[in-house]
Amino acid sequence: MWRMLIERGKDMQLTYNHLQADENGGRAVWDAHYSFSQTKRRVHNHINARFTFKDGKILNHHDHFNFWRWSRQALGPIGWLLGWTPFLQQKVRKSAAEGLAQFKASRGV
Length: 109
What we know:
InterPro entries: NTF2-like_dom_sf. It comes from Hymenobacter cellulosilyticus. This is Nuclear transport factor 2 family protein. The chain has helices at about 1-10, 65-75, 75-80, 85-105; strands at about 15-20, 25-35, 40-55, 55-65. By secondary structure, it is an alpha+beta fold. It has one domain: Nuclear Transport Factor 2, Chain: A, CATH 3.10.450.50. The chain has a four-stranded antiparallel sheet.
């Protein structure tokens, strides 16, 4: 997912802070500023991330952010009206999963 986001995010700027980690897991707060590819609208996403590690690699990565805030920025009026609904949240998840599957297939992953 990260590789896809970075390759597609031509104008992406990332900052991070509040890093905490040990051999089992970690946390970080990060901010992403970018243009959402489907609408070209500017987005600032403030994210709290949690990680679990195994054998020195990331086993799980979970991001938490305000989806309604993100959808208002990324999708405009539709996001403002429907961003709080499970319907739109599931639609965005499905679209992201499909995009990731296509990205992986194009690279033979």
